[in-house]
Each structure stands twice: as C-alpha cells, then as structure tokens.
Q: What sequence folds into this?
C-alpha cells in the first residue's frame, strides 16, 4: 500500500453508515449513501485512510456493494486505495460475510 500522508487530521477515519455515528465523538468523514461514499473517495484520491468503517445497508435499496466493487477493482491496479484498516460493522450477517470475502480476496 502507498504511504502518502493525508492533509486531514491524523488519523483519518471514514465512516460509511446511513444512520450511526461514533458514540465517542471521534473525528471522522461521514458518508450516508453509496453515492456520497464514491464522491468522498474520489475527492480523497490516494490519501491514506487509517480506518474505514463499512456498513452494508445504507437505506432503502442502497448498499455498500458499489463501493466494495470499486475497492476490489482498484486493488488490481496501480490505483489501489491506501487504507490501513477496514472495519465491517453491519447487522446484515450474510452481507458482512460477502464484504469480508470480497475484500480479503482482493488483498
């Protein structure tokens, strides 16, 4: 993984969840929909994300699947995302297993 430093306060945490926030009040960039996540990730470019928190169900028919698909696609190129840790925090067990399998397979 690249080690480019982020212009954001270190460590950089990104939370993707349609409803929840961190109870401890830690600083984080938050996206509530897959569309918001994709725009946020594009704006961050190759900046390092120290902690990326992923929820699967993002309200209605929206899910994290387009984001996971993008991460897997980028993992196989020189444009792989620079992420320290990925945390899956979904109540949808089957989707959580799918997310983990996809991301682990991509390295």
A:
């Amino acid at each position: 993984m690249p080690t480019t430093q982020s212009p954001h306060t270190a460590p950089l945490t990104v939370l993707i969840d349609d409803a929840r926030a961190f109870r401890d009040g830690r600083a984080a960039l938050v996206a509530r929909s897959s569309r918001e996540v994709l725009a946020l990730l594009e704006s961050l470019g190759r900046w390092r994300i120290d902690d990326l928190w992923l929820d699967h169900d993002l309200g209605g028919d929206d899910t994290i699947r387009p984001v996971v698909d993008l991460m897997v696609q980028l993992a196989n190129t020189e444009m792989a995302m620079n992420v320290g840790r990925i945390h899956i925090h979904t109540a949808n067990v089957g989707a959580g297993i799918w997310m983990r399998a996809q991301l682990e397979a991509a390295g």
Observations:
- The mean pLDDT is 90.
